[in-house]
Model the fold of this input.
Amino acid sequence: MTRLTPHQPARPAIAVFCSGHGTNLQAILDATRAGRLRACVALVLSDRPDAGALRRARRAGVEAHYVDPRASPTRAAFERVLIRRCEARQVRLVCLAGFMRMLSPVFVRRYRHRIVNIHPALLPAFPGAHAIRDALQWGVKVTGVTVHLVDEAMDHGPIILQEALAIRPGETATSLLARLHTMEHRLYPQAIHLMLAGRVKVEGRTVRIADRR
Ligand code: GRF
Done:
C-alpha cells in the first residue's frame, strides 16, 4: 500500500461514462497526468462494447467496463449496476462524456449535483444527440459548448461553464465538430476541477463559481 504524506492527499475519484470515441475522456486523462486536474479517473463505464473510450481507458491503466444494458431487466436495474460500480470505487463525481443514454431518477438521486455532462451547443439551444447538425441547419451565427449538472431531464440541469464560438462562412459539420472538440477538451477538465474544488455553488438554476480567475 502506498503511504500518503500530509502533503499528498489522495486525489478525488471520478468516473467517466462514455459511449463513443472518448476524446473528452482522453482530455480528462491528459489533464490529470499533466497536473491541471487534481483527480483520479478511477473508473470508465460504457454501454457499448466497441467504444473507443474503453480502449483509451485501458491504455491508460484505468479500470474500464462495458455494462450491457440488455443484461438488466429494467433501466433502474441497469443503473443500479452503474451505481454499485461507482460506489465500489468511492466515486465523488460522475462525468458524462458522450454517454448516449439518459439517466433516470434512480441514478440522478444517488449522485444529485455530482453528475456533469458536456454538450456541443449553447444550451438550452439544440439539446439532444444531433446538436451540431441542428445548429448548422438552423443557420445560427454563434454556437458553443456547455458543461452542466445533470438532472432528470435531457440536457437540462444548471449550467456550470459555457463558451461561444462564431460559425465561419462555409463552415461544415466536420470543421465545426473539430473546433467544438478543441473547446470541449479545454473546458471539461476546467469544469471538473471547479466541481472537485467545491467552487461550484448551485442555487436553483443559478450556478456561482467561487474565485473564478
Ligand atoms: C462530445 O461532442 C460531447 O459534447 C457530446 O458527445 C461527444 C463525445 O465525444 N456529449 P467523445 O466521445 O468525447 O469524442
Remarks:
- The mean pLDDT is 95.
- The pocket of 5-O-phosphono-beta-D-ribofuranosylamine is lined by residues 18, 20-24, 97-98, 118-120, 184 (CB under 6 Å).
